[in-house]
Amino acid sequence: MSGQDAATATTVNTTMTALTTTPEPEGPQVPRGIGASVEATDTRAKTEGTFPYAADLWAEGLLWAAVLRSPHAHARIVSIDTTAAAEMPGVRAVVTHADVPGATTHGRRIADRPVFAHDVVRHHGEPIAAVAADHPDTARLAAAAIAVEYELLDPVTDPEQSFGAAALHPDGNLIRHIPLRYGDPEATGEVVVEGLYRIGRQDPAPIGAEAGLAVPRPDGGVDLYTASTDPHTDRDLAAACFGLEPDRVRVVVTGVPGATADREDAAFQLPLGLLALRTGCPVKLAATREESFLGHTHRHPTLLRYRHHADAEGRLVKVEAQILMDAGAYADASAESLAAAVAFACGPYVVPHAFVEGWVVRTNNPPSGHVRGEGAMQVCAAYEGQMDKLAAALGIDGAELRMRNVLATGDLLPTGQTVTCPAPVAELLRSVRDFELPALPKDAPEDEWLLPGGPEGAGEPGAVRRGVGYGVGMVHMLGAEGTDEVSTATVKVVNGAATVICAAVDTGQGFATLARQIVQEVLGVDDVAVAPVDTDQPPAGPAAHGRHTWVSGGAVERAAKMVRTQLLQPMAHKLGMSTELLQIQDGRITSYDGAFSMSVSEAMAGKELWATAQCRPHPTEPLDADGQGDAFVGLAFCAIRAVVDVDIELGSVRVVELAVAQDVGRILNPRQLAARIEAGVTQGVGAALTENLRTVAGLVRHPDLTGYALPTALDAPTVRIVKLVEERDVVAPFGAKAASAVPVVTTPAAIASAVRAATGRPVNRLPIRPSAAVGAPNS
């Protein structure tokens, strides 16, 4: 075996060993199947420190990569001189745009992003060149030695100015415009309230290092080991860039330390593959924290103008809105994010008349893309702010006003789509409204009172005001507007041990655990492993919008049922009955009359059974010229009551408690579901209070975890999961709904509502600035 072949074999072996499911401990008390709190498949590996993140991978003859990034937000590149870098001892290759053999631009939806900038730099941190060297320090020094001459250009950083600015990209500045028209434009209400809202730039801020390894293959192809969330799309993008056929590029998914957008940027993987192909050696890249902030996409900063009309009883008559989203330099998922924002601009409320204008434009700000609840989170903060204004104007309790307007199954969205899925919004809101409030400090004097600002807060108790507020949010599940959602899975059983083969990436949402539960439920087997994911398997699509629970879980269920039929048919034939009269339960196969019984292990002994199946939900359609259309497969809803303490002298905010009621369809794994909801709520707390990637003239300020304030364990509030409504969606496998995005969407709106209640101030910006909660209420 050559050195190159050995490197490949070593890498594959490391990944396969670590990603294969660890067997569960034996014993009759271990939970099994759907509805049980089955332990996550990777729990043991993560707690023991053996989980194979990409930063841990190694190969014989490894080289290290570094990327030169633009220090400017907007500039013309006059020249690039790599001579000094190439001549440094230990440097094996330097690549620029001139060395890209295939497509020089890429993008998941629109191929508008250069692999390396070559004529114009459009955002701070854009890649310009990459280096491979025998030591990481050498690679970084060589990258710094590349001489680039820039002609600085004025950056366009205000999305409102983008409309009239010179084109920042050959495709123009406007990425998409959606006008939504629904009902009578002349309709008016007795009470009208207006608001202007701004949502900041939230970063995914992955705790694990972004890293990857590229290993050249003997056939002239390359294997990419990355924390990809959509490996087949990444493979196709890479193959186009490398000038290779897709079957000569393989993407192997390493351990993904959570993903909310940052793992979906192919720009990180492309330089690796180019350097591996150029040098003929394995090449590894581990991004610094600064590179991570500059390189991946963020939540779209958004400006929203609203006008709500209501009658004297508080029932909504008309909603008018203008939504402007900042895409940054490139399109990425911006068109889809705008569609969600426009479609959900009125929230989970019945609105007879709606007129919404939505735009997403290019600027020279950092790129925006997919982050949990994209589009929906921004409009939720705005329409809930409007509901608070309406409640104040009418003198109605905020929860009661919302109750008078909530959406239900059978109602119409402003897009004209009928809500056919369960929509228990009233039940959710009622549950959090009626839940017991946390005690005030004077009611529990023996407990230490945490002042806003923490245990050592500088505030005085006399300046603290408590507020209670509400947020009601919604998200769509699966892709939208005609996206072909399909996933393929294979279930194979040999001597009673089952293996699931599906390219659905477990990004922390627990798909691998769910796949085991499905097979255990359908086949009655205990020993179930989930194979590592790579692009040699059929596609399963991206890990977003809860799609793997629905589409990939559905494919696993269908494949398992096909294996079940293969197992039971011979028995049913001998017994003279149909397979439907045999059931598998508690590890045994029994007939309907109890006359026949056999253990599953005995029935499967010596047998090899397998089946492959697909799951494809019903089709959707793009929004038309008036923003109308059945664009979404399904919807999920959430209601949250927030209780906050606000120091009105310092402007500091402490979230005391968040009571959550969520529409989940069906609980598949109670422990895992609770963890997903709590994690989503915590991410929402960050968006509400601390997380804002600040820029000055397009340049990112403090791209580190000191300047970017993530919520810590000390910031995480008490989360009370008050109610989980199980109304199964009949078109979804198992009837389950997406769990983690909708609490992210709803939490910031609820916290802002509570701060309004505590201070009497409008609070129209996220994250909430201290100045918004200081002093006397605005008149």
UniProtKB/TrEMBL annotation:
Taxonomic path: Bacteria, Bacillati, Actinomycetota, Actinomycetes, Kitasatosporales
InterPro entries cross-referenced by the UniProt entry: Ald_Oxase/Xan_DH_a/b, Ald_Oxase/Xan_DH_a/b_sf, Ald_Oxase/xanthine_DH-like, AldOxase/xan_DH_MoCoBD1, AldOxase/xan_DH_MoCoBD2, AldOxase/xan_DH_Mopterin-bd_sf
Origin superkingdom: Bacteria
Composition bias type Low complexity, residue spans: 1-22
Residue ranges of domain Aldehyde oxidase/xanthine dehydrogenase a/b hammerhead in the record: 48-154
UniProt name for this protein: Oxidoreductase
Annotated segments matching region Disordered: 1-32
